[in-house]
Design a protein that fits this description.
This is Four helix bundle protein. The chain has about 120 residues and is mainly alpha-helical. The chain is built from four helices and two strands; from the N terminus they run ββαααα.
C-alpha cells in the first residue's frame, strides 16, 4: 500500500489514517454531554466516522473496479456526513467547538482524498 504524508513527517497509509480517524471520532463522541438532543447525534457521528475506515478496508480488498469505486464513494459520503454531524453536535453543545475542529478538518481532508481517488480510479467494466 502507498504511504501517505499527513502533515509534518507523519507517514502512514490511508488504512491506518482512517482507523485513527475512527478512534478520534469515538473519543470525541465519548466527551460529548449526553442529553435528549445529543444522543442521536453521537450515534450518527460514531456510525459515519468509523464507517470510513471499514469501507476503505473493503475498497482495498475490492474484487472489481466497480466494487472499488462503490466503496471509495461510500468513504467519501461518510466523511462528508461526519462533518455534518460535527456541525450539529457543536450547535447542540457549543462548548464542544474546539474539540470538534480537528475531527471536522480530518473529515474534510479525507473527503478530498476520496474525491481525488474516485476521479483517478479506473471506470467500472
Amino acid at each position: 500500500m502507498t504511504k501517505m504524508s499527513a502533515g509534518n513527517d507523519k507517514n502512514f497509509d490511508l488504512e491506518e489514517r482512517t482507523a485513527m480517524f475512527g478512534e478520534r471520532v469515538i473519543d470525541f463522541a465519548k466527551a460529548v454531554p449526553r442529553n435528549e438532543v445529543t444522543k442521536p447525534l453521537i450515534s450518527q457521528i460514531v456510525r459515519s466516522g468509523t464507517s470510513v475506515g471499514a469501507n476503505y478496508g473493503e475498497a482495498d480488498d475490492a474484487i472489481s473496479n466497480k466494487d472499488f469505486r462503490n466503496k471509495i464513494a461510500t468513504c467519501k459520503k461518510e466523511s462528508r456526513e461526519t462533518k455534518h454531524w460535527c456541525r450539529m453536535i457543536v450547535r447542540a453543545e457549543p462548548e464542544m467547538r474546539e474539540a470538534a475542529k480537528p475531527i471536522w478538518q480530518e473529515a474534510k481532508e479525507l473527503h478530498l482524498i476520496f474525491s481525488a481517488i474516485l476521479r483517478k480510479a479506473p471506470p467500472p467494466k
